[in-house]
Structures are given as structure tokens and as C-alpha cells.
Amino acid sequence: MVEAKIGVQAMMLKEKFEELGPYQTLKKIVELGYHAVEISQIPMTPENVQEIKQAKEDFDLDIASLSCVVSNDGAGGGNDDLETQFDKIVADCKTLGVDLLRIGMLPFPNMRNLETVLDFTRQANKYAKDLKEHGIDLYYHNHHVEFRKYDGKFLLDIIAEECPELGFEVDLHWVQRGGANPIDVLDKHAGRTALVHLKDYRIGEIPEEAFQALEEEDVMTFYQAFTNIIEFAELGQGSMDYKPIIEKALDTGVRYLLVEQDMLYGRDPFDCLADSRDHLIALGYEDLF
């Protein structure tokens, strides 16, 4: 079994990629102690692909996975689409030595109802089959919407049934946010999960404006603020008990555990990554960096 490696999800570094370029951004990631990166929402121009390739070679850096969307519907976050760029995506994977490709989310239009979800699963399963012919496995990254139930089944489980060729990238924060148990989800999809996202789940402060609204007897405005104070957090800065979750992920054979933080609340992403690194080391996972 391949030993798992802790890495970084590049989405949180989009501005750094634009400011410093891929090579220098990846150099900084390695200097922080990470030696794997998942590329997402970074334009895969020929120039960027070559810089990523050079960084991979110069810094002994794993490119854990690349990102894509199924169709060109304008909601892909800048990722290439399988519908019109299949050959390019395969070529980029080959150039960077990548055999894991991931779909970052269920497309917004497909969230409408179960039938629109099933439209997506048919497309995704077809492309997963096509990619396997090139030695590339396709994975699906969840958010919280996959824990809506249809006839007593989580949407994630329906996707699993309808897409037998598809693997999973389990985002543990979004599992928790969807009200499910991360350990149970990892256990249920053991053998199909090669990647996980590590980020914490924090309850933030009720803003002062909400209390001002309350004083003006605007209870609904206060209540909306009260029910929307969930924040993304650096590992160790929230409420998730990551030691048993990571142990379960390792037991199920995941290849990469990728640190991610969707919103940084004004902090520098490198500082956030340093804090998360320190927490993982404190938990005893220094050997996975």
C-alpha cells in the first residue's frame, strides 16, 4: 500500500499563483514543509503547466491531482472541461505525471432536483470510463448538498450507486457541515476514496450589526446572522476532532490528505497553511509531509 502524503489544495492560493507565478508559489509551499499539491482553479495554460512541471522536478513535489468539470457551462471555477477539452486534460495529466483527476463540485444547475443530479451522474460515469483507458481515475469532491436525502438515501450514496466508475474525494469539513459523521462516510466509501480534504469547522462571532438590529426589534435580521456564523478554519482552530478522522482515512487507504481553507478572513494563505501544518505535526503526522 502506498503511504499517504499530506499536501495542499491550490484553490486557496489562487491569488498567490497570479501574484508570484506557479513556480514561486509551489516553492513556498515546499518551504512550508508540504510536498504534494492538488491543482484547482489555476488556469492550465501552457506556461503554467510548464512552471508546475518544473517545480515538480526541482522540489520533489507530488502533483496529487488535477481538476476539471464535466461540461463547459461557465460555472467551473476556471477548470478545464471534459466535454470540449478532454484531450488537453489527458495531455496535462501525462505531462505532470498525474493519474488522479477530480470534479470539484456538483454543477449548480444539476443541484435543482434528483433528475438533474442523475443527468450529471450519466455524464460523469461515461467520462470516468473514457479516462480509465488513459490510466486516469476520476474522482468526485463533495460539499454539504450531497447530504440531502431522497427516499431516505443521502445524495452522495445515490451518486455512488449511479457512478460505479467514479471515486471520491471526501471533504471532511463539508461532511460535518452536512450533518453526517466523517468517520462513517470514510468507512462507507472505503476503497473508492483516494483523496480527502482537511479543513476545520468553526463557529464565528455574531456581528455587531445583528445586535443593533435586535435593539431595533428586527429579530429576523438578528436570527439570520445567528444561523449563519459557520466559518472555515485552520486545522486546530475549530471544533473538528481530526485525530480519529485521519486515522480512519489512513486505514481506508487514502493517498493524499490535502489541507484547504475556502475563506481566509483577511489572513495570508501561507500563514494559514503554516498553522494547519503545525497542528498536524502536533497530532503526530510529521512523517506524512
TrEMBL record:
Pfam families: AP_endonuc_2. The keyword Metal-binding does not apply. Keywords: Isomerase. SUPFAM superfamilies: Xylose isomerase-like. InterPro entries: IolE/XylAMocC-like (IPR050312), Xyl_isomerase-like_sf (IPR036237), Xyl_isomerase-like_TIM-brl (IPR013022). Residues 27-260 form the Xylose isomerase-like TIM barrel domain. This is Sugar phosphate isomerase/epimerase.
